[in-house]
Structure to design on (152 residues):
C-alpha cells in the first residue's frame, strides 16, 4: 500500500526562552535532553512518519538564517526553516504559510514538548481523517492537529 504524503507539520521553536533562561543564554528548544537537542527529538519524530509531506521548523529570526548544524540530521528534502514572528501566533502563521498546498492534515507542535509518541499522532491523525471536526488539541503534548478545508 502506498502512503499518501498529505500531512504538514509546523514545529514552533521561535521562542526566546524568557521564562526558562539559562546562565549561558541557550534557548530552551536547543537544550540537550535524553541525548540530543530538544527540537531534534520533535523533528525526527515527525520525519519518521511516511505520511508527512513537509515539516516547517519555525526558529527565532536570529537562528533561522543560520540554524544549528544538528538540525540537518533530519530529512532535509521534507524540511523548511522559516523565521518566527513577534508572537507565537505570528510564528505559527509564518509556518503555515510555508506548508505545501497539498497538506490536508496540519499539525502544529511546540518544540518544547519533545516526546510526542507515534501512537498518539497515529490516533489523532486517524480521528481527524475520519471525523468532521476541524481541530483537535492534545493538551498533554501541546500539539494542535487540524484538517485543512477541502479547497486547500
Amino acid at each position: 500500500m502506498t502512503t499518501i504524503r498529505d500531512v504538514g507539520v509546523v514545529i514552533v521553536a521561535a521562542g526566546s526562552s524568557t521564562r526558562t533562561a539559562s546562565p549561558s543564554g541557550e534557548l530552551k528548544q536547543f537544550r540537550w535532553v535524553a541525548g540530543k537537542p530538544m527540537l531534534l527529538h520533535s523533528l525526527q519524530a515527525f520525519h519518521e512518519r511516511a505520511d508527512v509531506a513537509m515539516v516547517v521548523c519555525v526558529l527565532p529570526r536570529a537562528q533561522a538564517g543560520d540554524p544549528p548544524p544538528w538540525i540537518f540530521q533530519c530529512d532535509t528534502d521534507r524540511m523548511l526553516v522559516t523565521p518566527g514572528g513577534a508572537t507565537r501566533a505570528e510564528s505559527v502563521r509564518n509556518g503555515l504559510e510555508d506548508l505545501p498546498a497539498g497538506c490536508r492534515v496540519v499539525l502544529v507542535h511546540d518544540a518544547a514538548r519533545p516526546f510526542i509518541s507515534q501512537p498518539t499522532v497515529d490516533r489523532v491523525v486517524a480521528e481527524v481523517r475520519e471525523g468532521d471536526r476541524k481541530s483537535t488539541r492534545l493538551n498533554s503534548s501541546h500539539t494542535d492537529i487540524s484538517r485543512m478545508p477541502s479547497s486547500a
User: Anything to note?
Assistant: Residues 36 and 99 are 26 Å apart (CA to CA). The beta strands are 7-12, 32-33, 36-37, 52-59, 79-83, 105-110, 135-138, 143-147. The helical segments are 38-47, 61-64, 88-97, 118-130.
